[in-house]
Amino acid sequence: MNELQRTEYLAALGITSYMPRFHLPLAPVAIQAELPPAIEDTPEAAPVAAVMAAVGAEPAPVDETRPSPRPESAPEISRVIGSITTETRTTRAEVNPEPIAPAQQINPFVLSCWWLGDELLAVDSREPGSALPVESLFGNMARALGWHQLTTGRDKLKWPLAENPFAAAAGAADARDTCSSWLEAAVARRPVKSIWLMGQQARDYCAPVILEDAVADWNGVRLIAMPSLSELLSEPLRKREVWQLLQTLYPEQTRR
After folding, report:
1. For residue range 46-92, what is the model confidence (pLDDT) as tens digits?
2. Phi and psi of 178, rounded to 5°?
3. pLDDT score recorded for residue 160
């Protein structure tokens, strides 16, 4: 290591470097560090004329009789550029942007879910705050089918999932993606033979396939669309059509 590098390292470490003028008692004898190599001064490159003169060669003569190329006149250049621009010019088609339809807004709703063993997953639509005995009615339907002694499970899905005043309101497409994904995950976790989609919200947003009729098949699972429990309590006459549908789909269970 030469003296210059040693000084730079000590300065980077925050150590003050000094050289004593006198030999201190009990101090080792100072050793001269290696100095960096000297930089040799290189002469600058001589001009071409000086080099040619040094070697005794004459510079190449300039032929003044040779005519220099005449630049093309400005009007001629403008004419050529104008013709090229005219040939390559294309008419830009007017594109009318298609108006973007606003997202369809939906009212908040709640989906109440019941599992009855491996037989049924019922998804019922109801509005928040409604005080109707929907659980008693569903219990009567399960008892009529002989499923009241099966292992039961309950869950609830509220839409929208969270209120965010700073974001745009969630639309129907968001509700459909969320609710259908939840239904697929629920069936994958607890397989069942039938799924009741009770009410408009359950039918429109939870169905994994398009329901053209009241009954559809989805991967071996029977999808059944029917009125919600709140609608059956508000319109008791609709219970007859639901019972007739259940008798058609579950003849053995309703024969009792």
Report:
1. 555 555 555 555 555 555 555 555 555 556 666 656 666 565 555 55
2. -70, -50
3. 79
Looking at residue 202, its amino acid is A
Domain chopping of the chain, boundaries: 109-255
Per DSSP, which regions of the chain are E strands? 109-116, 120-126, 152-159, 194-198, 215-218, 221-226
- Dig out the tokens for 180 from the structure: 């259908």
Task: Kindly give the pairing relationship between strand 120-126 and strand 109-116.
Answer: antiparallel
Compute the radius of gyration of the chain from its Cα atoms: 46
Q: Which residues contact 186 (CB under 8 A, 6 or more apart)?
A: 113, 121, 155
- Quote the CA–CA distance of 175 and 170 in Å, as a whole number: 7
Q: Could you say which residues of the chain have pLDDT below 50?
A: none
Quick one: pLDDT at residue 22? 74
Smallest CA-to-CA distance from 19 within 38, 5, 1, 27 is with 27
Return the residue matching tokens 């239904």. 183
DSSP conformation letters of 167-227: SPPPBHHHHHHHHHHHHHHHHHHS--SEEEEESHHHHHHT-SS--SSSEEEETTEEEEEE-
Cβ–Cβ < 8 Å for 245, 139: no
Angle at 182 between CA 181 and CA 184, to 5 degrees: 65
DSSP code, position 209: S
